[in-house]
């Protein structure tokens, strides 16, 4: 018998194909006769449609003694309409496989809908009912107010939330709406009733003050007809343009300690206010902030986490507060994290050292290149879903950015050099112009922090 050795066929090693160009989806802009603006983006294969509706109903318009009414109104939109009770409305959403969420923030109201493409017209009808004729039943408003009052103590007990509240209070003047909690205080929320919710709704929620963003696979869908029959039936008076006051903040270097006796960790948030995304320096600032504290390999983490073991992670960030093409906008530039109580002083000393060394020596080309590769390279993955695209387009609408803003941002990031990124991040975080909030045991951390000389130290109750 002859041994036969089978012939092995070696296939050539696969090679990478030609990279396909990617661009953020461009929307098509239109409108309805009732004044509602519409942005649509056809995304083949995305059979779950995402709809985002922005309504200009700013928190600054809330009555001073009823702050939080915009949040209660937003939550009440899905708690019954002129056609459905709260229970029936929820059942209809479930029947169509849809989700509906709403929240209020400084720029206004945002309502989000996701639904399978085959049920889009039905779900748009529910969305339209919620915006057109919410019931605002007294019993539902009372329940939502009670729920909100129950949430507030938990938020105050959360070190991260408490630190953010204290930072906003320190940064902004007392008369500014931004100085106070977005969702109201216990005192202001307790004053809210159905009449107050109805009054805020009637004063601000109308189609002429709204934009609907629709993203997904629109194959076979007569979107114009679906919109005309649903959101097109929403009526209301013309909307006057809100008067946006200039955002002002005091970034004099100082420290606020929110005392939590016995705390084993110190929650920290360091911040100041800077320009929003309309500023030409934004792409460079985004690169610089990523290098400073946007990843596990950033400068802050390399020192505070890897070298010293003070923390599980510290992050630098830029968060839009309110963005306007007329210049009445602002962004919070911040650094946040937590450290063990006993190393609070040394951790802050090293954090300031990182900032000063960055100002003196700048970023490296390797840091800049790595940031560009990540931020530009991850973009296609970040916008794989219709919801991600719709949310970003809605952000652009809310911030009065051009429709092609996101599409051009990545080219601007790739063109930004190391020197520009360094200048932007150093300008964002000047070591002598930062407000620091620490939530922790004041008895243990106050003196070590005072010794650092990073600003006057004030201790407040927790």
Radius of gyration from the alpha-carbon trace, in angstroms: 25 Å
Average residue pLDDT = 94
Arrangement of strands in the largest sheet: 1-2-6-3-5-4
SS field, number of helical segments: 17
Using DSSP, what is the number of strands?
Answer: 12
Order of helices and strands: EEEHHEEHHHHHEHEEHHEEHHHHHHEHE
First-to-last CA distance: 89 Å
Instruction: Quickly give the structural class.
Output: alpha+beta
Low-pLDDT residue intervals, each spanning 5 or more residues:
none
The description of the largest β-sheet is: 6 strands, mixed
Range of strand content? 15-25%
The best one-word shape is globular
Proportion of residues in helical segments? 40-55%
Characterise the protein shown here.
- Residues 1-23 are annotated as: Disordered.
- Residues 192-373 form the Peptidase M16 C-terminal domain.
- Residues 38-165 form the Peptidase M16 N-terminal domain.
- By secondary structure, this protein is α+β, with helices and mostly antiparallel strands.
- It is 40% helix and 19% strand.
- It is built from 17 helices and twelve strands.
- The protein has helices spanning 69-76, 86-95, 120-132, 138-157, 159-171, 186-189, 194-204, 223-229, 282-293, 299-307, 344-361, 365-377, 379-382, 386-398, 405-415, 418-428, 442-450, and strands spanning 28-31, 37-42, 48-55, 99-105, 108-116, 210-216, 254-259, 265-274, 314-322, 330-340, 435-440, 456-460.
- A six-stranded mixed β-sheet has the order 1-2-6-3-5-4, with helices on both faces.
- Strand 4 and strand 5 (108-116) form a beta hairpin.
- The model has no long low-confidence stretch (mean pLDDT 94).
